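Bench notes, afternoon.
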Amino acid sequence: MIGSASHLLWGFVLAILIVVVGDMFSEEIRTRLERLPHRLIDLSGLLVTAHLREEMVDEWHAELDFVLRRTNGRPLTRLWRGTRYALSILGIVPNLEWGEVERIRRVDLRLSPTRAPRDCGRLLDNPK
């Protein structure tokens, strides 16, 4: 009788430990995935010339925060929209030069934030 109670107690402690450790792993993965779009923006900043880097990266982070704010805490939507936006920025960075930055700034601000990077890319590909 005493042996079975001891086994039951150890089984209960082990089950709680598994749940707690599993939750910790889940939280760690969730936190890293939430940071992914911001790290991609930081990576894009490394590809920009030094004299533009801080200004452009700050602007991109602000735009990314705006895009993410509209997800209302839905983690998969937040990851999808944020990563899509950050990858679109990463795609236009190699085309940036001093004159092209000014054209990007004149993009119509009424565009949705998820369309703006695509439109900026089109602007760079087809300058007027």
